[in-house]
Design brief:
Blueprint: H1 2-11, H2 37-51, H3 80-135, H4 151-169, H5 178-200, H6 202-205, H7 209-241, H8 249-253, H9 269-307, E1 320-325, E2 333-339, E3 357-361, H10 368-371, H11 373-380, E4 387-390, H12 407-421, E5 428-433, H13 436-446, E6 451-457, H14 469-473, H15 499-509, H16 513-520, H17 526-530, H18 539-564, E7 571-577, H19 578-583, H20 585-594, E8 601-607, H21 617-631
Parallel strand pairs: 3-4, 3-5, 5-6, 6-7, 7-8
Antiparallel strand pairs: 1-2, 2-4
């Protein structure tokens, strides 16, 4: 009985190494043969050891024994069922967290696209408003004028539209690129740097106004929006790729599910194409801003050097350079330079009468810095006692005028600047060169009480203000004979304004390539770029030429016709170029008509040289003699 009881008890005990095989000292092995003696001995020893262990609470490996009542088994990674439970639990948590991130991502996309669409609409409205206000009719929404207005403002607004459009079109997590993030940061910093340069110079700081400042800030803000969007895309990309951080590297490596959001860190071919297009456009914007920044640096340096000796208030000294308001509303300022005692009385100490003040009107592509050198030479030779030059709005250092601009408007502005602001009361002899001849006619007609005479040097005729677009489209005559009334062809020296070409040149002027080459290769100085040969590449100047071209047929032509009726009793001398008369018979006819403006025409002199008579030695001397004879009537007899 004892032996039988022991065997029954032994069959109910399982080996720790194999939970399914009962252990018994006298039971045969699985193949039916008795167990070897050494196996019997080890099994018996193991049985004896297990007899001393408690039955309750004993830890077993693998599947829990039926004897371990009330005790939870420890987790074992080798159990396949437990591994499945852990995997399901991990995937459930991952899907819940992934769903939350994707929900926030979709909300971010909807909100950002809605905001960007609003920005683009506002940008477009602002672009149209600026286009109309700066180039056609002054709307003046902010009630402050940008007195340094140019094509740069329009270009920056257009760049803002491009930046916001790129932010809208490429706002997708699969299109995130760290290069785009760096480009947005760089472009934002460059825009703010350009604004800092503008505010660094006193001249531009006083003239940029609220609208100009807001244009720079808005452009910088557009790139900053791109920075914010890229940061959010980077954050969502990192969260979707690493929802549990670095603690679940093994589990994350086992995830092979398809990712409809493109968060795997790899891009498809289509995404690479989109990224390449976006980065190419951004690189072009970066190239533009680099050149734009160099242009701003050069402009700031030139303006600082040229304007630092110019007063902002009336300087009652013998020779001075100053800025003067053009009206009581302080709309904009003209830059006026005078030489000699322009503030003194008209009589000398010995009772002799002073010479009139020579008031010079420059041409269409220059300032007095170039075309008034022949008068300056007479001043240094003490043949001329006093004279004044100024730059029309948008030329040289004069401010940009609000649109529209006509010859009569400029004449009124000059009258207020000289007589009311500068207190220079004349009397004057007006001298008009090239296109300035039309301005001299209108100013003289409006101020007959302070003008003693007028001299026209290679002056335009009012017919040059007419567009004649239809006539320009017609083919030229095949027999080589030109219609005398055909003004569609003129020598290249007569630079007629063409608003389409001016508009194209104005947009390219913001790149500043021509201005950079002027000092890198041509070694021109600051005054050449502000007043001289390179002024025609300045964005502010090109805007002024566009305004002149737009109103030439509508307003300026009528201004000149109205002025001609009042010039019948004005002393007049006309100087014409022999070379230009030979090139164009029409030009000769126009010069002859100019001599008939007044019943008191003193002289019509055809001088040697080309249109720029101040460059030719003999022609310049002949022109100077005509002026001296006009100033002293005794030499005319």
């Amino acid at each position: 009985m004892a032996s039988k009881s022991t065997n029954t008890s032994n069959r109910s005990i399982k080996s720790p190494g194999n939970s399914e095989r009962p252990v018994s000292s006298g039971q045969p092995s699985e193949n039916g043969s008795p167990a070897p003696p050494h196996i019997k001995s080890s099994s018996h020893q193991s049985l004896l050891e297990n007899e001393h262990e408690p039955l309750l609470g004993r830890s077993t490996a693998g599947k829990p024994s039926h004897r371990t009542f009330g005790v939870q088994p420890r987790s074992d990674s080798t159990d396949p069922n437990r591994e499945d439970e852990l995997a399901i639990d991990f995937e459930s948590q991952f899907q819940r967290k992934l769903y939350g991130i994707q929900k926030k991502y979709r909300l971010f996309l909807n909100n950002s696209r809605w905001i960007l669409n609003v920005f683009i609409i506002l940008n477009t409205v602002w672009l149209v408003t600026t286009l109309i206000s700066d180039f056609f009719f002054n709307i003046n929404i902010f009630r402050t004028n940008n007195r340094d207005c140019s094509f740069s403002d329009l270009t920056l607004i257009f760049v803002s539209i491009i930046a916001n459009t790129l932010n809208l079109w490429f706002n997708k997590i699969g299109l995130y690129s760290s290069l785009d993030y760096a480009l947005n940061v760089t472009l934002c910093v460059l825009t703010l740097f350009n604004l800092a340069l503008v505010y660094l110079i006193s001249y531009t700081r006083r003239r940029i106004g609220f609208a100009g400042t807001f244009t720079y800030l808005w452009a910088a803000f557009s790139f900053f929006v791109g920075v914010i969007i890229d940061w959010f895309l980077y954050t969502y990309n990192r969260q979707l790729n690493e929802p549990y951080g670095h603690e679940q590297e093994d589990n994350r490596a086992n995830r092979t599910r398809d990712d409809p959001f493109g968060i795997s860190g790899k891009h498809t071919l289509t995404e690479w194409i989109y990224i390449g297009i976006r980065n190419l456009i951004k690189f072009l914007l970066l190239l533009f801003f680099v050149l734009f920044t160099f242009n701003t640096l050069l402009s700031a340096w030139d303006i600082h050097r040229v304007s630092r000796g110019t007063a902002d208030v009336t300087a009652e000294v013998a020779t001075y350079s100053a800025f003067h308001w053009v009206d009581k509303a302080h709309t904009y300022k003209l830059h006026v330079e005078c030489y000699g005692d322009v503030f003194e009385s008209n009589s000398l100490d010995d009772g002799e009468k002073r010479q009139p003040i020579l008031l010079f009107e420059h041409g269409g592509l220059d300032t007095g810095f170039l075309s008034a050198t022949w008068i300056q030479e007479l001043y240094h030779l003490n043949r001329v006692q006093r004279y004044c030059t100024y730059e029309r709005p948008g030329y040289g250092l004069s401010d940009s005028a609000p649109a529209p601009v006509s010859i009569a408007m400029v004449a009124d502005a000059l009258k207020h600047a000289l007589l009311e602001e500068a207190k220079i009361t004349g009397p004057f002899i007006t001298i008009g060169y090239d296109m300035g001849g039309l301005f001299a006619q209108v100013f003289t007609a409006k101020n007959l009480d302070v003008v003693d005479g007028m001299m026209l040097v290679e002056s335009w005729h009012e017919d040059l203000l007419l567009k004649n677009y239809l006539q320009r489209l017609l083919p030229p005559s095949r027999d080589g004979h030109k219609d005398p009334d055909d003004v569609s062809w003129l020598p290249p020296e007569i630079a007629r304004p063409n608003e389409f070409k001016i508009w194209w040149d104005g947009l390219w002027s913001c790149w500043g390539v021509k201005l950079q080459t002027s000092w890198l290769f041509a070694h021109h100085g600051s005054r050449e770029r502000i007043f001289g040969r390179d002024m025609k590449y300045q964005s502010k100047f090109l805007r002024a030429k566009f305004l002149e071209s737009v109103t030439s047929s509508l307003l300026s032509y009528k201004d000149v016709l109205s002025a001609k009726e009042k010039l019948l009793d004005v002393k007049l001398s006309v100087v014409s170029s022999r070379e230009l008369v030979k090139k164009s018979s029409q030009w000769g006819n126009w010069q002859r008509e100019l001599t008939k403006l007044s019943n008191k025409a003193r002289e019509w002199k055809i001088v040697e040289g080309g249109h720029e008579v101040y460059k030719y030695g003999l022609g310049k001397q002949q022109t100077q003699d005509v002026l001296l004879r006009l100033m002293d009537e005794k030499e005319i007899n």
